[in-house]
Amino acid sequence: MPGLVSVKTPPDAPPLHISVPEILPGSSTRPEQQPPPRTPTPKKPPSPSPSRSKPSPARSTKKPPPDSPNPNSLLSDPSLDNPDLGPFLLKLARDTIASGEGPLKALDYAIRASNSFERVAIEKGEEPSLDLVMSLHVLGAIYCSLGRFEEAVPVLERAIKVPDFSKGMDHALAGFSGYMQLGDTYSMLGQVDMSIECYEKGLQIQIESLGEIDPRVGETCRYLAEAHVQAMNFDKAEELCKKTLEIHRAHSEPASIEEAADRRLMALICEAKGDYEPALEHLVLASMAMIANEQDNEVAAIDVSVGNIYMSLCRFDEAIFSYQKALTVFKSSKGDNHPSVASVFVRLADLYHRTGKLRESKSYCENALRIYAKPVPGTTTEEIAGGLTEISAIFESVGEPEEALKLLLKAMKLLEDKPGQQSTIAGIEARMGVMFYVVGRYEEARNSFESAVTKLRTSGERKSAFFGVVLNQMGLACVQLFKIDEACELFEEARAILEQECGPCHQDTIGVYSNLAATYDAMGRVEDAIEILEYVLKLREEKLGIANPDFEDEKSRLAELLKEAGKARNKKAKSLENLIDPNSRRNKKESTKKWGFRI
């Protein structure tokens, strides 16, 4: 699963290339146990909870290698009718994985095992057994370890159809494990919505089997909450995290590590919603719990989060104090060149940039870049890419877009072969698109936005507010390239999304209204442009107030359109040269009244 805010193992732990279920259906192990952990690929340290993770594939190739076994050719193997063969092949597959002999041999065994279980069930005229489910889980895990996630999906979808939940806890466990593993796989493909849907079904099975206050239900609730955070469904994430906190309070000692992890996640959610004071309260309580448990590095990680909150509240002196405390601990426990040290340097660079101390800001940026240039063993590419992205934002703010673009390109190259990073790459491409637009490289801006839009569509984020904003920015790039029809389609789609996600009174939505009105006028659709501007003015007069300086501009635009429409309704479309705002990135001589497109 996508490890947005948590990991199961420390960054310097050796990665597991394949993770398969450890519980065989029908064994003596209690079925209500949690499924085994999957290999983490953390996006950024530290981890506020030990719950969410995702597989670490051995490679990211999507096509089977030449020597990969062909499942269809195995169906005709008469030896698969032997009822003793399936369990034997399944054991061979697991032993091969454990011995590290190579995933392709294990893949062959797992495919033959699952086919054997299927064939035997058909021959006996029985329903498929849970042995088939186990073999499919193992097969799906091997496909994921090879980076062949698309092939894992149908295997795991077949696995979740076999269990009959009315037949007891073994079947419930098999169903729960299958849905969670399928959710992991969808997450690695960037299909966040499908991933969350699978997690929710797994949680429901677990609740029905164990009850609502079982501690294992709490772990799954937190797992699902983190998925909702990644999908930016913060209200749902907060609801689940509160439930997790209640369960852990009922089953754990006061100030437990589990409660601290829950509070760190809750703080992250509150911060994302702009509720800084509650976020700070949760972090303070989490820090007290970690101090009681002598978790110094975790306390330092919480200090970084506390510093972030203080910076959001413009309490800069307190933020510096928190960052320096964390920096001292990280240097003494992990060394001067650890990525955790670099991450604090980045935060200090951002703080000093915000307070106008550009020399100090640049110095911290350079120190962080030196660490990222020569990462210590165990540093993940996600950590480096995240740091480079944050530093690029500082360079962009100080008017160095070219340097910022170089850093974003490096970050994108680090992530491009990593599964489950489509949304992150899309965000980087959107940032690059904005900077290309700023420096007047409109064709490159459009291409970057187009690539970001494509990734966001496939990852299930086509209904998010961020997606609407990216569509609006791509439309602006199309306007600069005089691709007016394409710009109109993008603005219309952005309007529909932002109206749904943000409401008509949100500044982003109103900006799209203005851009769409200008585009309609450029296309000669004056009546449509008038209708939109009248709607915007009505919103301002009735709900937003008329103090906004844009009000008079929009009012004069509407008056001009009404006047022109009264003279000649079938007038020719205006040239886009007369629609770009004189204060926009492209400098032009003002010859007529111009429209101001809004980013």
TrEMBL record:
<feature type="repeat" description="TPR">
    <location>
        <begin position="300"/>
        <end position="333"/>
    </location>
</feature>
<dbReference type="InterPro" id="IPR011990">
    <property type="entry name" value="TPR-like_helical_dom_sf"/>
</dbReference>
<feature type="compositionally biased region" description="Low complexity">
    <location>
        <begin position="50"/>
        <end position="59"/>
    </location>
</feature>
<feature type="repeat" description="TPR">
    <location>
        <begin position="133"/>
        <end position="166"/>
    </location>
</feature>
<dbReference type="Pfam" id="PF13181">
    <property type="entry name" value="TPR_8"/>
</dbReference>
<feature type="compositionally biased region" description="Pro residues">
    <location>
        <begin position="33"/>
        <end position="49"/>
    </location>
</feature>
<dbReference type="Pfam" id="PF13424">
    <property type="entry name" value="TPR_12"/>
</dbReference>
<feature type="region of interest" description="Disordered">
    <location>
        <begin position="567"/>
        <end position="599"/>
    </location>
</feature>
<dbReference type="InterPro" id="IPR019734">
    <property type="entry name" value="TPR_rpt"/>
</dbReference>
<protein>
    <recommendedName>
        <fullName>MalT-like TPR region domain-containing protein</fullName>
    </recommendedName>
</protein>
<keyword id="KW-0802">TPR repeat</keyword>
<feature type="repeat" description="TPR">
    <location>
        <begin position="510"/>
        <end position="543"/>
    </location>
</feature>
<feature type="compositionally biased region" description="Low complexity">
    <location>
        <begin position="70"/>
        <end position="81"/>
    </location>
</feature>
<feature type="region of interest" description="Disordered">
    <location>
        <begin position="1"/>
        <end position="81"/>
    </location>
</feature>
<feature type="repeat" description="TPR">
    <location>
        <begin position="176"/>
        <end position="209"/>
    </location>
</feature>
<dbReference type="Pfam" id="PF13176">
    <property type="entry name" value="TPR_7"/>
</dbReference>
